[in-house]
Amino acid sequence: MANSKTDTYDKLRVVIVDDSRTMQAMLDNAFSARTDFRVVGFSSNAAAAVDMIRGLMPDVVTIDLNMPYIDGATLLGMISDLQTVCKIVVSDAPLKNLALAASLMRAGAALCLGKTDLATDPDDFFAKVRAAASQIDKSGTYRWNPGEEPDTRTTTGRMLPVRPEAQFPVPADEKSRLQFLSQSTLINNDRERRFDLVTRHLTRVTDYPVSLLTFIDRDTQWIKSASGLEVGSTPREEAFCNYTIAQGGAFVVANAASDRRFAHFTSVASSPDVRCYAGYPVTTSDGVNVGALCVIDNRVRTVSRHVLDQLAGMADIVAEMIDQRTPAGNR
């Protein structure tokens, strides 16, 4: 049986996310006029877009920045785990603000293009889209051979190599991260009231049944604080938070059971039957992602901006707590 790519002359499948019907029509007409693209879906709001993108798994998604309720930057975070989808921001704002453009690239955008680019030079616009899409590694992983220096480049500008002996990403600052943890009193499951207050707060304000604060050393994920779950540690290779600390921003998994990176995890295949995960890194004042704060549910869910905002805010508070600790770890 011929695959869909062959049947459609190797066309790249595109989802358009923009709250302007006019802009949707313009992009649709422009993409449809090309022989190498095929529009397979539209969405006017980010919440609906997440489900559509995860269901269709297109080659390319174009994202408007200014949308009601959930903006394009937040949408990037909500689909940041989809490494085989080329995410392109189509907005004039990043062209005028280099800091904004850089933050969008860190959040997962492979490319930032202006809406005016589409009108003034459509050939260049689509050449850039095609080039960005062609750089996506469809295996969804980044590997290197043992003994070689890792290639940490990705289309999003994030550092996400995979450790040779295990299938999980390793942060670019792994050496300094492990050094910090070895000198701290964080890599254990001894409960601390200040951290428990944070995870308890998160379960209350996000309506997620479980919240965890984790710290990962070379081989183990230590659950330093938990609300709604009693687990002290897990093998590192079965830690969702590997992706959170490596990515350096919000990391979301809407349905772990349908994601080949996580479906085999013990926590997914059996109790507690994890389905939805949302995490945010805990970053020290030195810029080291030493841990992760996350919420999980055994239901498939779309993660809201409110949840991501709460995670980001409480992760900052935990980072402040860690920065204020003495080497002896006074509590």
UniProtKB/TrEMBL annotation:
One of its GO terms (biological process) is phosphorelay signal transduction system. The keyword Transferase applies. The modification 4-aspartylphosphate is found at D64. One of its GO terms (molecular function) is kinase activity. Residues 13-130 form the Response regulatory domain. InterPro entries: CheY-like_superfamily, GAF, GAF-like_dom_sf, Sig_transdc_resp-reg_receiver. Pfam families: GAF, Response_reg. This is CheY-like chemotaxis protein.
